[in-house]
Amino acid sequence: GENVEQHPSTLSVQEGDSAVIKCTYSDSASNYFPWYKQELGKRPQLIIDIRSNVGEKKDQRIAVTLNKTAKHFSLHITETQPEDSAVYFCAATTGWGNYQLIWGAGTKLIIKP
Amino acid sequence: EADIYQTPRYLVIGTGKKITLECSQTMGHDKMYWYQQDPGMELHLIHYSYGVNSTEKGDLSSESTVSRIRTEHFPLTLESARPSHTSQYLCASSDQGGEKLFFGSGTQLSVL
Fold first, then answer.
1. Residues B17-47: pLDDT tens digits?
2. CA B104/CA B112 separation, integer angstroms
3. What is residue B9's DSSP assignment?
4. What share of chain A is helix, strand, coil (3-state, %, to 5)?
């Protein structure tokens, strides 16, 4: 079955610097890759997603890139701010018709002032 | 406002008690899910439903049960709570495609 590996488990960056979180997936049939952000004590929320027919997608300071050949996708956050501190989860779809999301283990992003 | 509502927000109970965690959504979604998550840790799927009278077990073995009698309601029941059940339980729903999930605020369960 599908497996999603996420690295690093913890990432600490200086405020204003960029942060990159990487995920690899095993099922070449996966075609949808979302990223969720979970702030401390809050619910996970979708922040950006990408489909397999697109190589890159941007939304203000966040972007996601997809390399189908290598089967990995990455979240990029530029000009990090304190409010970016959270746990970030990647996921990939599996199955046919009724899709299921397979989740990465999460990355705790710490923004240092 | 369309949302997913979970009650209670926090629950502390003794070992052996039967509990039901409530989840209701006004999103108009057919698919609903229950996840178990320790704070800031992995999301483990324990149950899901594709619609009324449909329930399936997830990847994580769980001693809980669920029911789906109404589209908007997806309660989770523990017949006999144990300290190992202490965790946060997140309910979620998704549209027909099943890709974009919307989560409730969660129930933090502590079993003493």
1. 999 999 999 999 999 999 999 988 999 999 9
2. 25
3. S
4. 5, 60, 40
Alpha-carbon gap, residue B29 to B34, rounded angstroms: 14
Q: Nearest Cβ partner of A34 from B41, B100, B106?
A: B100
Distance CA A4, CA B20 (A): 32
Closest-approach residue (CA) in chain B for A51: B99
Nearest to B101 among A38, A42, A101 (CB): A101
For A78-98, how does the pLDDT look when each residue is reduced to its tens digit (9 = 90+)? 999 999 999 999 999 876 666
Token look-up 């999603």 returns A4
Tally of residues, chain B: 112
Which residues in chain B have Cβ-Cβ distances shorter than 8 Å to A51?
none
